[in-house]
């Protein structure tokens, strides 16, 4: 039986010297291998016909191999990118972007884009003034507020004296007063969001300086979304305020890419009149002409239209836009939120049907884009696990990671070039970093992804048995496996190594045997599990049994792997996410950039 098992795992044909009895014994096993070979992750997800041969015990056997000859997709080095919402102007957090701790956390996710956009994009006005009068609204007695505002001014003066990257160390009392202010503003922001009625925001020159300083210090490339709701009487875009912002940015030699508007298919509910796709396409053409008149931005990148979920009317909007401005933008963008944050439950994050809703959207967007501009890059911008600001102890918990990691794997395997996570720091609960500047589970998941995953996507091949197969369900539905070349930036691994990342939604552990080119190779395990008594609701995580936390404000912890001996079966615990670096595969697809 051991001989048979060895031949099955290796895929080698039985030599001619095999006795006839051995060949007869091997026949059912070879038939099983053929019956349960599944297509690559990027292919058809429908269940294959399953017949349980007589004499085979009910157990789970999963064999995994990867095509190492050539990648099926190559995505951007900035694939996992970040977003900041303009609400940080309203609640005051923009003044704290110079925090050493925040910059350290953002640097961990570089290289990446930093998109400054959100619902309030189209209510943002730029004022070229350095020191506007401080608002006296906010929490606490007047003398506390005055001290807080004076601290902000003193911090600004200290930053101005610094050269290069400007970093601040804010006193604890200053942060405490800011959290009180933000808590009150959070209620105002939520009220605006639920009523869909937003107040105007002012972005000053100093605020723009702080935003750009944060991006530049963190190694992030800033993408700024301009207000598209400033309209002329004929409904064309009024570019006067945008021109003022562009001229100021150019005078500072800021390296910025641009967008126009946010979710423009919903403008009717915001302003009482709509902007159709064709009109927005003309507005983008106008913006491109404006950029070409400014030397600093004559070759700047332009992205859009950042539509919402591709329903029928939104698809019509995108078609109108692509007809007019498909050649004007450098990438076509849309956004997606999985669940309404007001009604979400932890079990929602474990539903395979929910995880797969994104696939249909990708196909719809790709169909339109390839009709008008074949080969144009597509980005998913503003992706969040839940809408409506998220839900405390849910969209910021370990459970939300299942959706986030599957989103990364699914988008990469289907050729989406960039995914922008909403948000790095926010007033809601969809963020990666909380208001104490502590990283949440999705931050650590993103950090592991950045450290281990390279831009080359590889096809996987799986063969397996399921104990009780059900119609329309194969084992891969709840065991999701993706493969990439290991990141070239990770100097712990030589080129040619491969990284697997695995989501186990089963409530039992699963065993995976590496086969083919991956067989008998040393593997490094990075197993991410919730830490503490809260389980899936936990806001803390452990890596290979060790809790993750920042060493200090300027230092992220070392992400230590657990080495597994060559040939060892991978044991995937229930309801977990994990990464496995298969060392020294010398994969042809991964040797060169």
TrEMBL record:
Q: Name one GO cellular component term.
A: extracellular space
Pfam family example for this protein?
Answer: Glyco_hydro_79n
Annotated GO biological processes are: extracellular matrix organization
Q: Which GO terms describe its molecular function?
A: hydrolase activity, acting on glycosyl bonds
The family database entries (InterPro entries) matched by this protein are listed as: GH (IPR017853), Glyco_hydro_79 (IPR005199)
- Recorded coiled-coil stretches: none
| Gene3D superfamilies, alphabetized | Glycosidases
- Please give the family membership noted in the entry: Belongs to the glycosyl hydrolase 79 family.
This protein's name: HPSE2 protein
Specify the taxonomic lineage. Answer: Eukaryota, Metazoa, Chordata, Craniata, Vertebrata
